[in-house]
């Protein structure tokens, strides 16, 4: 199959290289608003490039991958759907809820498959935890602890268009909580602080945050994250049940050291970035997209899933600003 990819920045160039290596993919062609960048990446990977998105979409694609900047997603998704091409789009769909809802309506009114890139759904650990919750072997789940800790903060210029900590960072936790439990969030209480460089606060954002979510079966979920975790990129989830408990992301590479004498686990090199932590998941995610393109698989993460995760993030922002519990019913569907 022939896959076109738009946006060859940090994640796009990585996805282009992954696509090139997939057995189901015969040709990869890339484009970018910066045509020189597309040409450079194409030369580097030994693949084709198109001078712009129009040329890319007109080049007989079987699948379309959007890895451009977030501000371009809604328009590019609309173009992929209008062209009738099965489309994969990196999270998030848009910067705000209204644009996200518009895209959801557009996609759901079409028969074009659209897969949104929440790669944790393809991580073996989260999949195993989901299977154990669903099989009942953990009993009833009473608490979940989820965290997303980045090793280093992004540059100042990233923050004003990031959507804020909950929409940019912990949105991955919000999606995977739904995936692992199969439950919906009914209310949130969230807070945050600017403990690092002051530019986060200058843009109304935080660099450390915490949220308590209550699920529709009364499971309590605490979500926390920071932009300053020099120990490493630390993404984990603990699922605590009446019959057993499991931890996702607890292995030799966990960015954590025991304070107990004589305990050497975890002893390996901690993950530095999300690329290290989720490399196999990104490959599995794009493999799944090729199956969507081939028509052999249902879309594994829909635009409505992305909308639900975004609504939880919006509820957390509102809760942080108003310092109160926010019901998900308050956030438009
Ligand atoms: N799922 C994940 O774990 C994950 C990780 C990183 C980034 N992302 C998402 O991927 C997207 C890209 O992030 P990044 O860090 O690679 O950004 P980046 O800034 O490194 O790259 C973005 C690229 O998009 C291009 N671009 C911007 N507007 C365009 C347009 N209208 N048409 C064509 N090309 C355009 C830019 O020239 C640039 O090359 C963001 O939406 C981000 O949220 C997801």
Automatic annotation (TrEMBL):
Family classification: Belongs to the Gfo/Idh/MocA family.
Cleavable signal peptide: none
InterPro entries found in the cross-reference section: Gfo/Idh/MocA-like_OxRdtase_N, GFO_IDH_MocA-like_dom, NAD(P)-bd_dom_sf
A Pfam family per the record: GFO_IDH_MocA
GO molecular function: nucleotide binding; oxidoreductase activity
UniProt organism field: Kribbella amoyensis
Name by which UniProt lists this protein: Myo-inositol 2-dehydrogenase/D-chiro-inositol 1-dehydrogenase
Domain Gfo/Idh/MocA-like oxidoreductase N-terminal: 1-118
């Amino acid at each position: 199959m022939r896959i076109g990819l738009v946006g060859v920045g940090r994640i796009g160039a990585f996805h282009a290289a992954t696509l090139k290596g997939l057995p189901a993919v015969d040709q990869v062609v890339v484009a970018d608003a910066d045509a020189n960048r597309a040409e450079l990446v194409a030369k580097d990977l030994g693949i084709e490039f198109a001078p712009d998105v129009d040329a890319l979409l007109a080049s007989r694609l079987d699948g379309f991958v959007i890895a451009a900047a977030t501000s371009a997603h809604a328009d590019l998704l609309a173009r992929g759907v209008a062209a009738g091409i099965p489309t994969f789009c990196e999270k998030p769909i848009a910067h705000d809820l209204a644009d996200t809802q518009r895209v959801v309506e557009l996609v759901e009114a079409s028969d074009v498959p659209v897969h949104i890139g929440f790669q944790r759904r393809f991580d073996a650990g989260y999949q195993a935890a989901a299977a154990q919750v669903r099989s009942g072997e953990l009993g009833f789940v009473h608490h979940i602890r989820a965290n997303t800790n980045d090793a280093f903060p992004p540059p100042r210029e990233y923050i004003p268009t990031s959507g804020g900590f909950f929409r940019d960072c912990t949105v991955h936790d919000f999606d995977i909580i739904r995936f692992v439990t199969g439950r919906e969030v009914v209310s949130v209480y969230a807070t945050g602080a600017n403990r690092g460089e002051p530019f986060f606060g200058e843009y109304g954002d935080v660099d450390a945050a915490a949220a308590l979510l209550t699920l529709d079966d009364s499971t309590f979920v605490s979500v926390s994250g920071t932009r300053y975790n020099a120990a490493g990129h630390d993404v984990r989830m603990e699922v605590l049940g009446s019959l057993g408990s499991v931890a996702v992301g607890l292995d030799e590479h966990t960015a954590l050291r025991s304070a107990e004498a004589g305990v050497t686990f975890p002893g390996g090199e901690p993950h530095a970035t999300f690329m290290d932590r989720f490399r196999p998941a990104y490959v599995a995610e794009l493999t799944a997209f090729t199956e969507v393109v081939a028509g052999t698989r249902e879309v594994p993460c829909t635009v409505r899933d992305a909308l639900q995760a975004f609504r939880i993030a919006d509820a957390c922002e509102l809760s942080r600003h108003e310092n109160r519990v926010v019901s998900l019913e308050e956030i438009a569907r």
